[in-house]
TrEMBL record:
Domain of life: Eukaryota
Coiled coil: none
Residues spanning the signal sequence: none
Molecular function as annotated in GO: Wnt receptor activity; Wnt-protein binding
Gene: Lrp1b_1
Pfam families named in the record: Ldl_recept_b
A GO-annotated cellular component: plasma membrane
A Gene Ontology BP annotation from the UniProt entry: canonical Wnt signaling pathway
Protein name stated in the entry: LRP1B protein
Gene3D superfamilies for this protein: TolB, C-terminal domain
Stretches forming LDL-receptor class B repeats: 1-43
InterPro entries found in the cross-reference section: 6-blade_b-propeller_TolB-like, Cueball_EGF_LRP_Nidogen, LDLR_classB_rpt
Amino acid sequence: KLFFTDYGNAAKVERCDMDGMNRTWIVDSKIEQPTALALDLINKYVYWLDIYLESVEVVDYQGRRRQTITKGRQIRHLCGLAVFENYLYTINSDNFSILRINRYNGTDVQALARLDNAKEIRVYQKRTQAAVRSHACEADPYGMPGGCSHVCLLSTSHKARTCRCRTGFILGSDGRSCK
């Protein structure tokens, strides 16, 4: 799945399949400017910052069990969001400090370090990486991903795929080759 935020005419948090199909709103009320998103892949939670409502919130992948982690004026200065173990990590854009927020007790906030001009944060750790399994976009015997001549996108599951073409090409009637 692909998760993303939108704060155009109607602010929301959404998810869809990797090929863009099955687009679903998971949060569409009491939300104004969701600017950063982080996923807890193990427990299947979506965290986001709303800088207008000055809050950090969480829901499960279906948009249920919504909770506010923390709220206050300091939120409007946050950018980027990552989750690892019991904490959320973000950047304070006023002083470029890395903040650690306990995701179970939002009042436990600590400044860890400072990085000039930091705008985004990511956690890279082996335990955060999903195990790779066989999937529909693996290279075929001719080296084409999922048998697609240009781009292979996972669809409704790791066993299904959709072929797409680069700009200027159209998908052939076989659903795999681009012309």
